[in-house]
Amino acid sequence: MLKSKTIIFGVSSSIAAYKACELVSRLKKLEAEVWVTMTEEATKLVTPLTFRTLSGNPVITDLFSPELPHLPVPHISLAKMAALVIIAPCTANIIGKLAGGIADDALTTMTLASNAKKLVAPAMNSEMWRNPMVSENVKKLKELNYEFIGPEEGKLACGDEDIGRMSEPEEIVNKAINLLVPEQDLKGKHVLVTAGGTREAIDPVRYISNRSSGKMGYAIARAARERGATVTLVSGPTNLDRPLDIRLIKVESAGGMLEAVLDYYNNAHAIIMAAAVSDFAPRKRNKKSKIKKKKEDIRIELKPTEDILKTIARQKGRKKRILVGFALETEDLIENAKKKMKEKDLDLIIANDDSNFEGNAIKFSIVDRNGKVEDYSQQPKDQAAHIILDRVKDLG
Ligand SMILES: Cc1cc2nc3c(=O)[nH]c(=O)nc-3n(C[C@H](O)[C@H](O)[C@H](O)COP(=O)(O)O)c2cc1C
Question: Coiled coil located at which positions (predicted)?
């Protein structure tokens, strides 16, 4: 159920740390990729080896340890990859540090460095929980969209019967599932997505292309599938893994992409064109032989490719479908996006600039038919995908 979801799991030094073992084990059974980070004090209650064995990954207790995973800057790479940060149990100390923006250990550094959703399961003595400073810190974190679960009333380690117990692992896992697996609000819908750049052949080994990685289109396809849609992904060449449970049609050129889109057009409720399709292709292609190296200049004449969005806009039944385009502009972003939207009769257009190419995050604006513009700050492409699909869903 949580396959391909990366979770950073923070363990701080409450006596409830032993319950974190069950939590990690349950998340692993749901096929999540779990990376545990422990505070130094927590390692005095449960050994990192326990979590290493349960999670199948090295446990991060020290940002400067040579044993960290082989990733470029391990704690930042993991913070970027994570879909969710869970801190269970979370001490008063960690709540305070996060609310104050303090990052003096691996757990707080990774949490503050991550854009992922956060789920906090506090555990502490009831007087600590009621302490006005702790309440103030919890309020701050809630305002920053940290989700809290518990603490519950019950028998505490100190013998008191009061509020402060960490919520049960089953409840924490259910909350994590709710945060990670969205509502099945696209069930019964067929979403057709295009992704990646196209290659326009010059000869059998050379081509014209662009820097598109395909990450945005793949993220939209995965997000639509998670929300219950049947998904067809028409993809130009990329280095990305084949997404699970999605019909993947691989194409090379703009012409090939157009053909594939038209093949699946009839069944689609929504068509989201995230591909960076070449606007031009060589007029002549040396089909059989490679152009020989020469001393003098050579000229390659380019002709415009067929415009996929315009072609779709003319198809029968167009009005019954939601058509979403992307506009990548290096100047006058919104103005040019609006123009493109009108020309191609789109329902929505996602405007972004060239800073988003190749990376895992995107800063973008959504423009609708009424000219309304919603601006979104830089965020992971997976989250951006869900925002775009929310708008698509609003249109029917
Ligand atoms: C046995 C034991 C149990 C503790 N349980 C809790 C607890 O449930 N909640 C809490 O906030 N602090 C608890 N503490 C105190 C924290 O361990 C202490 O504030 C520590 O400095 C927090 O470090 P950390 O937040 O970096 O893990 C406990 C301490 C001990 C010795």
Answer: none
